[in-house]
TrEMBL record:
Residues 214-300 form the Rhodanese domain. InterPro entries: DUF1847, GlpE_sulfurtransferase, Rhodanese-like_dom, Rhodanese-like_dom_sf. SUPFAM superfamilies: Rhodanese/Cell cycle control phosphatase. This is Rhodanese domain-containing protein. It comes from Desulfitobacterium metallireducens DSM 15288. It holds the Pfam family DUF1847. PANTHER family: FAD-DEPENDENT OXIDOREDUCTASE, SULFURTRANSFERASE YTWF-RELATED. CDD domains: RHOD.
């Protein structure tokens, strides 16, 4: 079977080219599998599809399944990120996860592989599984385990589990980037750029200010420093430094489809702001041509 070559896609309209449901359908009727199906649906039903990132989905799934004890099996090379995950899970689930590094029990590579003679500490997925199983963990999150080790641990875990991070040392743990022809959000953004690069001209902006206001009709983002913002700014503006956007943008701009007009003093930083917000899924982001300095020159 190769569903990718099918042109009719009959299964999408309830007219499948094959129907083997009798081989397995009864399994869906068990109480446990019904519970999984309903929890999975709750993450996407009612317009929620595309509103949660993977970490938010995992957190929500833990709550939906009412897990009381969770664990993380992580690669030692990602311990910094594992610590961030631990703190996030504590904050958002109220549960303290069992955190198990791949080097648990300190086994030498030569002990696991007779063809090796060095004493370097080995990854130990069976040791991770042993601790998680014996700790009574109900749900384990896999984080950055080596290919092969991830398969081993999944064979021996006795609880539910899912993967949060797939290890890819070359592509910053995002292996889909290796697919020929795959386009990232950055690729699509650059390809869609108009000639004026999402600029709003000053006269158009001034007219917009007369006919609407921020934040009811649009967002105004001022990237200048807080000192100059306090001295002079455009009414209704939100002040946020460019390097603070990654931490604050979700809170500052809850509506991804409302227009955002970004400005700095001259226009350079605002272009970076436009690019960043567009890559985060905001659909109407513009940079004020000439920035605040030009606005002030034309309005004072």
């Amino acid at each position: 079977m190769d569903c990718t070559r099918c042109l009719s896609k009959g299964c999408r309209t309830l007219s499948p080219c094959v129907d083997r449901r009798l081989d397995y359908f009864e399994n869906y009727t068990t109480e446990d599998n019904q519970d999984f199906t309903r929890a999975a649906s709750a993450l996407i039903d009612g317009g929620r599809a595309g509103t949660l990132n993977r970490l938010e989905e995992i957190t929500e799934f833990v709550k939906l399944k009412d897990y009381q004890k969770i664990g993380v099996a992580y690669c030692f090379g990602m311990e910094k990120e594992a610590t961030l995950l631990r703190d996030y899970l504590i904050q958002h689930t109220g549960l303290k996860p069992v955190m198990v590094s791949c080097t648990v029990d300190g086994i030498k590579e030569s002990e696991l592989d007779t063809q090796k003679t060095n004493s370097t500490v080995s990854c130990n997925p069976l040791g991770q599984a042993n601790i998680l199983n014996s700790s009574g963990v109900e749900f384990t999150i896999l984080m950055g385990l080596c290919l092969g080790h991830d398969i081993l641990i999944q064979k021996y875990l006795t609880m539910d589990f899912t993967t949060f991070v797939v290890k890819d040392r070359v592509l910053e743990h995002n292996p889909i980037l290796a697919l020929p022809g795959y386009k990232t959000a950055e690729d699509l953004f650059v390809e869609s750029l108009p000639r004026d690069f999402n600029l709003i001209k000053m006269d158009e902006f001034i007219t917009k200010l007369k006919n609407g206001k921020s934040p009811e009709d649009f967002y105004l983002l001022d990237l200048r420093g807080p000192e100059v913002f306090q001295e002079n700014s455009i009414s209704g503006s939100i002040n946020c430094l460019l390097n603070e956007l990654p931490e604050r943008y979700r809170t500052l701009f809850p509506d991804k489809h409302k227009e955002i007009i970004v400005y700095c003093n001259g226009g350079m930083q605002s272009l970076y702001g436009v690019m960043y917000l567009a890559l985060k899924g905001y659909t109407h982001v513009k940079s004020l041509s000439g920035g605040y300095s030009k606005y002030r020159a034309q309005t004072v």
